[in-house]
Design brief:
Number of helices: 14
Helix content: 40-55%
Shape: elongated
Structural class: alpha/beta
Strand order of the largest sheet: 3-4-2-1-5-6-7-8
Radius of gyration: 23 Å
Order of helices and strands: EHEEEHEHEHEHEHEHEHEHEHEHEHHH
Largest sheet: 8 strands, mixed
Length: 405
């Protein structure tokens, strides 16, 4: 099976690339005949980069708005040289539009990853003036897709309400990341943390649903009885407002705004932290929680998360699970973990075991590859049935049997 992946961001543009995207590309390529990635970026335009014997990555340099059309056209050229059996897109909007255009022109089955709870979520990553346009694109792409990969069962309802058949939706979690062993003392020193300083960490985009305002409120309550420093990694449109809230809460000297941090530097933050908090209203993973557990960092999460639905984070067993809007409960959970570090680390260790069991990279890759194969087989069967029906109609006969697939 020859698979085309259309993505965003040139994270696999070098043959020695590391990180989640490169790890995933190399793992999934072991399970298919050939895996070809097309992404946008600022590297050498359309120059192939070998990630494995059967894994190639191309980077296209173009304006972001032109990328879907450029990627679709480039994919068609690759397809004419050697046909693809399946196209998979990393989201329903820009890469999804590219995949949908390519699929419609070539007839290649389309698989789409759905990273959001609602493609039209007003608090989603595309909550800008162009949101209505993104919504219409995403909706059309998802309805055209032959299969859709969700990351959490909580995502299913929104797609079914849009009229997408349940049998075209598969739920497969984020893969558990491999995190290299890191010297905790050295990482803490780099962050100017003393031996007795306690560190709370949060990482991710600064958009409304990430709920950092509630975390700041909880941290202010917790600091009345437990001294600590809060590190906020990430950037986004809400950062300025949350910085003002931190000042209003008297936290200006207690909060470090780290901004966007390269993926390769994140293990150092997890290693240095005493507890990782994911306060989001809802999350399909989040991957950051899996990264924290991979580094044996205790975690606090909220109920509407994939890591909770898959049983990885269980309240008072492997994590603290607190309501996203209960700042008192969030503050209490932080204080308990910071004051009973031995118990917190034991919970993290058990959480890590569960994550490894359910989300091991190899297991997730096998599940995704199985969806790829099933999608191709189902589309081929549907095409065969339509061909038989057309032949019967042409012969003046009415088909007596319909196959449901």
């Amino acid at each position: 099976m020859r698979v085309l992946n259309i993505g965003l961001g040139a994270r696999t543009a070098q043959s020695n690339a590391t990180g989640h995207a490169a790890e995933w590309t190399r793992e999934i390529s072991r399970l298919v005949g050939e895996y070809v990635s097309v992404t946008e970026g600022d590297g050498e335009d359309a120059t192939p980069v070998r990630l494995a014997d059967n894994a190639t990555a191309y980077t296209l340099r173009c304006h972001p708005l032109a990328y879907p059309f450029a990627a679709a056209a480039f994919a068609e050229r690759l397809h004419r040289r050697e046909p693809f059996d399946l196209c998979t897109a990393e989201d329903p909007v820009r890469s999804g539009l590219a995949g949908a255009l390519f699929s419609r022109r070539t007839g290649v089955p389309l698989n789409v990853e759905n990273p959001a709870f609602h493609v039209h979520d007003p608090a989603g990553p595309h909550a800008r003036a162009c949101q209505p346009i993104y919504y219409r694109i995403g909706l059309r792409v998802l309805r055209q897709a032959d299969s859709i990969r969700n990351y959490s069962p909580d995502q299913d309802a929104a797609l079914i309400q849009l009229g997408i058949p349940r049998d075209r939706i598969d739920c497969i979690p984020h893969p558990f990341p491999e995190v290299a062993a890191t010297d905790r003392a050295a990482c803490r020193k780099r962050l100017n943390l003393g031996a007795n300083d306690r560190m709370v960490l949060r990482a991710g985009r600064m958009v409304p649903y990430e709920n950092v305002g509630a975390l700041l409120g909880a941290f202010a309550i917790m600091r009345r009885n437990c001294a600590a420093r809060l590190f906020l990694v990430g950037d986004g449109p809400c950062r300025r407002g949350w910085e003002a809230r931190a000042r209003d809460l008297g936290l200006a000297d207690a909060v470090t705004w780290a901004g966007a941090v390269p993926e390769g530097d994140m293990p150092g933050y997890y290693a240095a932290a005493d507890v990782f908090v994911a306060p989001a209203i809802q999350e399909t993973g989040p991957r950051t929680v899996l990264e924290a557990l991979a580094a044996n960092c205790p975690v606090i999460v909220t109920p509407r998360m994939g890591v909770v639905r898959y049983g990885i984070c269980e309240h008072e067993r492997t994590a603290f699970v607190v309501p996203h809007d209960d700042v008192s409960a969030m503050a209490s959970a932080m204080r308990q973990m910071l004051e009973d570090t031995e118990q917190a680390r034991a919970m993290a260790a058990l959480g890590r075991e569960r994550a490894l069991d359910r989300c091991a990279l190899g297991r997730v890759a096998r599940e995704v590859a199985s969806v790829f194969r099933e999608t191709v087989q189902r589309v081929d069967l549907e095409a065969s049935v339509r061909g038989v029906d057309s032949a019967l109609v042409s012969a003046g006969r009415t088909p007596e049997l319909r196959l449901e697939v």
